[in-house]
Amino acid sequence: MHTDFEEYVQARSGHLVRFAHVLCGDLHLAEDLVQDVLAKAYPRWRRIADGDPDLYLRRGLIWANSTWWRRRSSREAAVEQPPDTACGADFAQRHAERSELWHLLATLPRGPRTVLALRFFEDLDDRQIAELMGCSPATVRVHAHRGLAQLRLRLAVPVPGAAQTPPSVPVAAVRRRAAQRRHRGIAAGAAALVLIVLALLVPLLLPHTPPPVVTPSPSPSVLPLAPFTAAPAAFPYVPTVLPGPLAGMPSTPAVTDSALVLTFADPTRLWNSLELRATDARPHMPQATETITIGGTSAFLMRGTAWDQGLQLDLWWQRDGRWLQLTSNSLLTVAQAQAFAEGLRPGAQPVTSRLRLGLAPAGYQLWSMNPDWICVRAGTAPATDPASAFDTLCAGLQQAEHIVGAPEFTVGWLSAQRTGTDERPALRVFLDDTRMVIIEHDMRLVPLRFEDLIRIAETITLDGNLLTG
């Protein structure tokens, strides 16, 4: 075992256990995930150590937790609590508050919980989180906003302090697990070799009889594909009043969850953002505490405290027959938000994406779109399961992740690899050493064959050119 690997495990594995504990909500499972990821990293540690080991192992823990999460048949309530340290005079109250926050964090969906763990426990910005999770910074901000909103609705008190870092993982345990993985690999290779030899010898030993003539019938896709063209989308307003914090700040129009969204984000502090959402349907509004006037129309206002102790504002009002929702995280005051809202003027800001789909499952409609992603989903929820989420197909351009093994086949002239699970099949098409397009189908009710993902990939255009052209 390399000395530098032993030193790293002793120095940093406790921190990794704490991070994994935040991801999965179970200390014993967190220790098991860390040992497994370290055991996988051990054989190629020299190459990993030349880069950023923390980044590599965090990504491995996120993927390991995601894989384990999908394998579970049901969720279990986390009962283990993180170790606490006594601080301040009222220890019992601080312990109860921290315990409550820990359990609430464990109840969040995997996406928002991972984003909050990376942002507030690992102190990463949205760009770094997006690279780790394989999504866009805008998606990271959406996960963070929803996770914080759910925590604010359920938590009545702020939680100070931080959990004590768990002890480091025993190096001997990592060594044993790495050896077990190596032995299993050797045994699997030997078994595969025996099967290959038997497969070659059995046809020679058995009497040969010609097979019956069978006329194969075509097997149509379980979920038929159809040509897809997304109707042009544009955010319907242009802001003419930009208060001081928004001056010079870049804005991005997008489609998110079938709603038109305009987002402002501080490039240096991405969690300080403003999101303006326009929908035809009345949005879900928690109990508003105030009422103000915007352009002669009553608006509902709710104040809160952001994680950086700034002012959190949520503002809802109607205009031109649609609902508008403004959410400001530590950027605007109430007066500035009111001035921004009153300064909106009709004007189309087109929503664009570098990617276009040529084929999609029949009946699917545009759901989300930003410069690097496009998602479509089923138009209606099946009556057999009205509470389920819609089946969704997404294609996104992102940074190429570490390739486990060689690419399995080609799509056009590009190397490709099959990933994901049976419930969420995914296809990676590698454009070069740094970029890839990932196509994935989250099929909760209606299946889609993996072969159809390849057909869809062959019709995707990037910047107006066929992906495989």
**Poorly predicted residue ranges:** 73-89, 156-163, 213-221
Number of domains: 3
Span of the ends, CA to CA = 47 Å
Mean pLDDT across the residues is 78
Going by CATH, the architecture of the largest domain would be Up-down Bundle
CATH topology of the largest domain: Butyryl-CoA Dehydrogenase, subunit A, domain 3
Residue share in β-strands = 25-35%
Q: Over all CA atoms, what is the radius of gyration?
A: 26 Å
Compute the number of helices. 11
Report helical residue fraction.
Answer: 25-40%
Structural class: alpha+beta
**What's the story with the biggest beta sheet?**
7 strands, antiparallel
Strand order of the largest sheet: 3-4-5-9-8-7-6
> What is the highest CATH level, the class of the largest domain?
Mainly Alpha
Shape: globular
What's the total number of strands?
A: 21
Explain how this protein is built.
- The protein is α+β, with helices and mostly antiparallel strands.
- It has 3 domains: 3-154, Up-down Bundle (Butyryl-CoA Dehydrogenase, subunit A, domain 3), CATH 1.20.140; 234-350, 2-Layer Sandwich (Phosphorylase Kinase, domain 1), CATH 3.30.200; 355-466, Jelly Rolls.
- The protein is built from 11 helices and 21 strands.
- The protein has helices spanning 3-24, 27-41, 45-49, 53-71, 91-107, 110-121, 126-133, 137-154, 171-205, 334-342, 450-457, and strands at residues 225-227, 234-239, 251-256, 259-265, 273-279, 290-294, 297-305, 311-319, 322-329, 344-350, 355-356, 359-361, 364-370, 373-378, 392-399, 409-411, 414-420, 425-430, 435-442, 461-462, 465-466.
- A 7-stranded antiparallel β-sheet has the order 3-4-5-9-8-7-6, covered by helices on one side. Strands 13-14-15-19-18-17-16 form a 7-stranded antiparallel β-sheet, with helices on one face.
- A hairpin with a 2-residue loop joins strand 6 and strand 7 (297-305).
- The chain is globular, with a radius of gyration of 26 Å.
- 30% of the residues are buried.
